Amino acid sequence: MSDHLSGTRAVADPAIDLTDLYAFPSPSWPGRLVLVLNVFPSARPGALFSDAAAYRFRVRPASVSRRETGTLFDVGTDEFALTCTFSAPTGQDMESGQRGTCVLPSGEPVSFPVNDERGGAGDGVRCYAGLRLDPFFMDVAKEVETRASRRLAFVAEGTNLLEGNDVLTFVAELDVARVFGPAAGSVLAVAAETVTLGPYPVRLERLGRPEIKNILMSDNGVDTANKIVDLRDLYNEEDPFRLGPTYLDAYRSRLNANLAFFDGLDGKQDWTTRPDGTHPLTEPLLADFLVVDTAKPYAEDSFFEIERALLDGRPYTTCGGRSLDDDVIDTLYTLIVNAGNGPRVSDGVDGTVPALRAFPYLAPANPNPPAEAAAIPKAAASR
Hints:
- By secondary structure, the protein is α+β, with helices and mostly antiparallel strands.
- The protein is 21% helix and 23% strand.
- The chain has helices at residues 8-12, 140-149, 176-180, 212-216, 231-236, 248-263, 282-286, 305-312, 328-338, 372-375, 378-381; strands spanning 18-25, 32-39, 53-64, 73-75, 80-86, 99-103, 109-113, 120-122, 125-133, 166-175, 187-196, 203-207, 290-293.
- The N and C termini lie close together (9 Å).
């Protein structure tokens, strides 16, 4: 489920469980970038952000890479971070009694009550945090069955497991030129993370593209080099822009094996691996961050479009990144199963309640969400 429940640590503490990251040009305000970070799967009314962790967007300028390593982007070392922390509940502010404070790249703090749709405003930035409807949609049961049965098990009309569920969200809408400066350019690499508070922060979880951990790094019994260790917790500790050397070969082995596995689900091979088994998508996917071009107009179905165009050797025409209504499961499965050389692979779920076109972008929370046990069964959590 995108990044819901992506490791034992995330399951143990839902307040730091990053479920989804989105980055897209505002559909209503040219020149503005929208960043959305969702946490806490199946949050209930009164759910709280952690007051012991920081929730952070990390943004770096990027450019197209021409290297022969398979890497598609060169990511700079300059970084623009937006870091949000939350107070312990006091019972005085709105529904949750929490206040959020977002520290902008300039160092300016922006404070706001949680669950107040007006949010808070700083120099070129608006911030919101609170309970909203989970925008992610997917037939989780049929995706799990697909991997277990080693065949495409999707049906024409799938069931969205997350229908009606809520999440906690942190939203930042910003004027790109004003907040990042003109030198940043329009192509940006975006990642998110939760870290502990204090002078020596520890990374708890990180997130870039959807389903890297829960689908592409899942244990499907085909990676003979890694049969015991759950790589997701190790991967969550990695810097989004610089993987450490210790487990890099393990990540590559898992992706090479799984990508070949997915390629064969339709009974034919559409990707050509190298003699050593390296898959063409392995290195691009290990560069695990969203890439958005803020000079391009908003596009609803633009996930992985910049990367796909570069792999095909053609100019890209859309903004990339990921919008709230983007059908990323269909895009991902079509990419890994038939490389776009066949019909679109669909899980049969095409959307949920549409997102808003203006701040704070996510649809209001469902006041009567489904029972938690029914919403996220153990089978999905153990993927």
